[in-house]
Design a protein that fits this description.
Rossmann fold; 6 helices; 5-stranded antiparallel beta sheet; globular; alpha/beta; aminopeptidase
């Protein structure tokens, strides 16, 4: 069996705010250790449950956060931030299941450090379905026929994926009090929970269905201001929906939609005066 593990940072145990997830802040180095330990808890449980291969994708910010020398030696790691499929780079039909760790709720929703890719994005739609990183990454896995079987993060992230994927196994390692305060498990207890829930997810993987995306999806991204929409709409094939800050792109498949989202987010970031 072969599994893919995408590890974000905002949903890691004990991390309440940006000072723990930004490379320029004092708490960041401490957070890298907790992040790596939690990845190892999941990887170890996967191998104990029969996995022959686990591919880990560092999925936070510059995507070079995991401590490679402390990562489980039997896992392979994708690290670095220029990836065509970003948080789900190298997912394909050869995997038996996808797992998310350290994930957070989408922009505009309750949850610790909730957002969708960048702070310029207010919301994302695929056709009429409102999604964030959880939904978009699940759609990409579903394009290849692979189910997302497990998510770890705060309670809001867990509820978000449960609404999208029936039967998915979740592990809430902390509860959101506000967007920058949490009630958290101790890291040792969290690692035990992660191992337990990973084993449970692998045991029931055959009953969890992939989140299959539309064949030719329409991507719509609502930005926080009109300047960001203008920048995003410089990408060929896009248009600003009149009277809104929403940019539309009709994609040939979900992979093109995902890449379009990444490009539009980067373009929108060029807006300096908000």
């Amino acid at each position: 069996m072969k599994y893919f593990l995408s590890v974000d940072m905002e949903g890691i145990t004990g991390l309440p705010d940006y000072t723990f997830v930004s490379q320029s802040e004092n708490n960041y180095e401490h957070s890298r250790k907790i992040m790596t330990d939690e990845a190892n808890a999941i990887i170890g449980a996967a191998f104990k449950s029969g996995a022959r291969e686990v591919l880990v994708n560092d999925s936070h910010s510059k995507m070079n956060n995991l401590l490679v020398e402390e990562l489980h030696e039997d896992a392979d790691l994708i690290t670095g931030d220029l990836k065509p499929l970003s948080m789900v780079q190298n997912v394909d039909e050869t995997f038996d299941g996808v797992m998310f760790a350290g994930y957070h709720a989408r922009a505009g929703q309750p949850g610790v450090m909730s957002h969708s890719m960048t702070f310029s994005i207010r919301t994302i739609f695929i056709d009429d379905v409102e999604i964030g990183e959880i939904g978009f990454n699940s759609y990409v896995a579903g394009y290849f026929g692979v189910p997302v079987i497990f998510l770890a993060g705060d309670d809001c992230a867990c509820r978000e994926i449960e609404a999208l994927i029936p039967g998915v196994v979740t592990a809430a390692v902390k509860e959101s009090i506000s967007r920058s305060a949490v009630k958290t498990l101790h890291p040792k207890k969290a690692r035990a929970l992660l191992a337990e829930k990973t084993a449970e997810a692998i045991a029931k993987k055959d009953s969890i269905k992939p989140l299959v995306p539309p064949a030719t999806p329409t991507l719509r991204i609502e930005f926080t201001n009109y300047g960001q929409a203008e920048w995003a709409a410089l990408m060929p094939g896009t248009r600003i929906i009149e009277g809104t800050t929403m940019v539309e792109f009709k994609a040939k498949d979900i992979l093109e939609a995902y890449k379009a989202m990444l490009v539009m987010a980067e373009l929108a970031y060029q807006t300096r005066y908000c």
